[in-house]
Design goal:
CATH topology of the largest domain: Rossmann fold
Helix content: 40-55%
Mean pLDDT: 93
Shape: globular
CATH architecture of the largest domain: 3-Layer(aba) Sandwich
Strand order of the largest sheet: 2-1-3-4
Number of domains: 2
Number of strands: 10
Low-confidence stretches: none
Structural class: alpha/beta
Number of helices: 15
Distance between the termini: 36 Å
Length: 338
């Protein structure tokens, strides 16, 4: 199952991480999440190798290298670089892209979660992209109807048990940019939701939560399901979908947990553990990413067993990682083990 592929056009603007996409769309531009464009390309490994040939160190995160090559190969001329609240390497990446003739617009989530600071960042982005607040709010209202449907899809995953972890992941992760076309995205979503009515609920599976950035592995969710488990909570992907009910865009992006301190994430995860009756959690960490340190905090703070996995380059999940998942699922199924 795949969603509509992104096609780069003259009004395409790349984003290195989730930004207030309402501003981009209100400006008449087509947002494309560079992470999604990279990892769904035909040869993501080659994109990483290309960046290394250009001088990127082997000890730089594969996502950064993939984004760089994706921008260059697709002729993307403008990029919004999230320089605060995401990967710190994005700052240097932005400077490299500028030297290649790419216009780079910085966007920074405030570390202290200051409402005033976030408002100032959104206002700066609004001015740069030449749109208005009424247009932004009209776009936000338009996207809200889609976000409500994504929330329904998520509930069908853990309440009705008729949506797989992969399907949940694909739709939620794509809500960072709505495939560049909210109308087409909504059509695909409506069609999918209509199909789920015909499905029988899945039963008897180990219920897992997935924490951290989306996996760089392919066949990750299918591997989990082959061992009798299912992901019914995709933490960060769900945050992309903004399942929050706020009256303005600033408060909406203040509740988005990923760019801020770990405490907000822990509260969100613990709520999911209880509400979704999770048996265990898989925490994915990316090689060479500073966020690996958060694994210590998560393990100390969460109330269910956590399996930590590390990924480096794009490609099919390796046998060692698959074996660790299988063993973890077996332990969770043994009620006497914990």
């Amino acid at each position: 199952m795949t969603l509509n592929a992104q096609h780069v056009t003259g009004n395409t603007i790349g984003i290195t991480a989730t930004v207030p996409v309402e501003v981009v769309l209100a400006a008449g531009l087509k947002p494309v999440d560079l992470n999604n464009l990279f990892v769904t390309s035909k040869h993501p490994k080659k994109l990483v190798t290309q960046a290394e040939s250009a001088g990127f160190s082997h000890s730089i995160c594969a996502w950064i290298k993939g984004i760089y090559s994706t921008v260059i190969n697709n002729g993307i001329r403008t990029v919004i670089a999230v320089t605060g609240g995401d990967c710190s390497n994005t700052i240097a990446l932005g400077e490299l892209l500028v030297r290649k003739g790419v216009k780079v617009i910085p966007f920074e989530y405030p570390l202290d979660r200051s409402r005033e600071a976030l408002l100032a960042q959104i206002e700066k982005l609004r001015e740069t992209l030449s749109t208005t607040w009424p247009e932004i709010e009209a776009t936000r209202s338009r996207l809200k109807s889609i976000r409500v449907k994504l929330k329904r899809l998520d509930e069908l995953t853990f309440r009705k048990n008729v949506v797989t972890g992969l399907e949940n992941h694909l739709f939620l992760v794509s809500s960072s940019d709505f495939g560049g076309d909210p109308d087409e995205f909504e059509k695909s979503l409506d069609q999918f939701l209509a199909e789920t009515v015909k499905r029988d609920p899945r039963e008897g599976e180990i219920r897992l939560g997935y924490l951290g950035v989306p996996p760089i592995f392919s066949r990750f969710y299918e591997t989990i399901e082959s061992f009798g488990a299912r992901v019914v909570f995709n933490e960060v992907q769900r945050q992309f979908s903004m399942p929050f009910d706020h009256e303005n865009i600033v408060d909406q992006y203040l509740e988005y947990t990923y760019p801020y301190d770990i405490n907000g994430r822990i509260r969100d995860i613990e709520k999911a553990v209880s509400e979704r009756k999770l048996d265990g959690l898989i925490h994915y960490t990316q090689t060479f990413c500073y966020r690996q340190l958060y694994d210590i905090v998560l393990r100390e703070s969460l109330s269910v067993p956590v399996l930590t996995l590390e990924g480096d380059r794009a490609g099919k999940i390796d046998s060692r990682t698959a074996f660790r998942i299988e063993t973890f699922v077996e332990m969770l199924g043994d009620k006497d083990f914990f």
